[in-house]
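During the second half of the funding period, the structural biology subgroup turned its attention to how the target accommodates small molecules. The most pressing case was zinc ion, which had performed well in the primary screen but for which no bound structure existed. We therefore specified the complex as follows and requested a full 3D prediction, including the ligand pose.
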Amino acid sequence: MILETLTACPVCGHARFTPFLKAKDQTVSHAEFQIVACSDCNFLFTNPRPPASEIGQYYESNEYISHHDDAKDLMSKVYNLVRDYTTQQKIKLLHHAVPGKGTLLDVGCGTGFFLSKAREACWQVHGTEPDTQARAVAMGRVGEAIHENIEAPFFDSKTYEAITMWHVLEHVHQLNETMDWLHQHLAPQGRLFIAVPNPESEDAQAYQENWAAYDVPRHLYHFSKKAISDLARAHKFKVVRILPMWFDAYYVSMLSTRYAQGSTSLPASVWQGTVSNWKGRKSAEKEYNTSSLIYVLSKN
Ligand SMILES: [Zn+2]
């Protein structure tokens, strides 16, 4: 495997980085990857990383259940139950941020569960999904063409009232090109929703290199609130809201406990998840700081 090494920070362009931590790919290759911090803006990114042409092989695992719906074990069942609830919450958020509804693009739509619910809620939906199998399921579910990626000519003249990226931006090689594309394809009053893991959360601090949401090398970036804000500004967006994802602390803690101790401990995970959510709650002094965060962006 030939890895590619970034020589400039993807957010600010600075050329000097310091080692942040080394994390292991726990699901596919079991190889170790370095996460670095930009010396100027503190952005955390996986460096070196597999190039876009090679990353596909790092998704070849049954454990990567976001693409599959036939999971049978307990953790997957819980995951699916939670997905039903969180999907309803996402739709509510969409309606709150874009009351007039309209067109929705879900980038990295997986098997199309969220899109199908959005369509039931009267959104006109489109999606992209690079995984062939997941894309086929999504097409069956949504009854619309789902395209492989945003480069499809289909999108050339389209704009959207809402664009969603649920745990997707951290996987995207062409970060700045993608942000520019999003700006170009978001309607003037539209909203962009970006959900990403939060490396400053309490569970990230607790599990360190075993924090499951580092998920190297699939996660190329590890966005802090400052990083999202810097990236937004660089691409003529602004962050208008930050929202918590409460369930991620439990899911991430379950996986992290397994990585750290070799087996899943439900009590330890529930405890850590609860502590993390408590410490990550919003207060007069601070924004939400939970395991994962949803950023709502508007155009400047
Ligand atoms: Zn930087």
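Two results from this model are relevant to the next phase. The chain has one domain: 68-299. Helices lie at 74-97, 113-120, 132-142, 175-185, 202-207, 225-234, 246-261, 266-279.
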